[in-house]
Write a structure and sequence with these properties.
By secondary structure, the protein is of the alpha+beta class. The chain has 5 helices and 12 strands. The chain starts with a strand and ends with a strand.
C-alpha cells in the first residue's frame, strides 16, 4: 500500500506571496487523516514551506532545511542550494521521498530529491498529487481575475480538491508581504 497525500500551491502576486495546502493523507484507497497541516513557518515566520511526499521524509527534510536556514538566515536560496547539495550526496538523505516549496518575501523555490532548486518564471508553483490541477487553476485565475495571491491559492486548491481524489478541501493558506 502506498501513502499518498498533499497538494501544495504557491502564488506570488504584487507585493504578496501565499502558500497553501490541503489536509488529506490517503493510505491505499482510504483516507487516513483529513486535517494534516503541511505548511510550516520557519525563521520566526519569515520563511514558509510546504511539503509533499512521505511524512517522515518530509519532516527529516524540513529539519535539515531549518538547520541550513540558521546557517544562512538572510539567504534562502543559499540555504536551499546547500540542502540540495547534501540531499544529493548524503546516502541517507538520497533515499528521502519528499519535495518542498519554500517562500520568503522575495524568493519562491522548489526543492526536489534529485538536487533541483527551481524558481518559477511566473511566481506560481505546485507539488503533490493535485499539484498540476491546482497550478492550472492558479494560472487561469492569475491571468483572468484580480484576486489576491491568498485568494488564488485558496480557490485553486478548492478546484484541485474537486478533481483529485488525494486532495481535500481542508485548506490552510499562509501569506507574506514585502516589507
Amino acid at each position: 500500500m502506498k501513502i499518498r497525500s498533499t497538494t501544495i500551491l504557491t502564488v506570488r502576486r504584487g507585493s504578496k506571496v501565499a502558500i497553501g495546502g490541503d489536509g488529506q493523507v490517503t493510505f491505499g484507497d482510504s483516507i487516513m487523516k483529513a486535517d494534516v497541516n503541511k505548511i510550516r513557518k520557519l525563521l520566526e515566520g519569515k520563511v514558509i514551506t510546504g511539503f509533499a511526499g512521505s511524512t517522515a521524509d518530509a519532516f527529516a527534510l524540513l529539519e535539515r532545511f531549518e538547520i541550513k536556514l540558521k546557517d544562512y538566515p538572510s539567504n534562502v536560496p543559499r540555504a536551499a542550494t546547500e540542502l540540495a547539495k547534501d540531499w544529493r550526496t548524503d546516502r541517507a538523505l538520497r533515499r528521502l521521498e519528499a519535495m518542498m516549496i519554500v517562500i520568503d518575501t522575495s524568493t519562491t523555490l522548489l526543492l526536489s530529491g534529485t538536487g533541483d532548486v527551481i524558481v518559477p518564471s511566473d511566481g506560481i508553483m505546485a507539488i503533490g498529487s493535485g499539484g498540476n490541477y491546482a497550478m492550472a487553476a492558479a494560472k487561469a485565475l492569475a491571468a483572468h481575475t484580480n484576486l489576491s495571491a491568498a485568494e488564488i491559492v485558496r480557490e485553486s486548491l478548492k478546484i484541485a480538491a474537486e478533481i483529485d481524489i488525494y486532495t481535500n478541501s481542508n485548506i490552510v493558506v499562509e501569506e507574506l508581504a514585502e516589507a
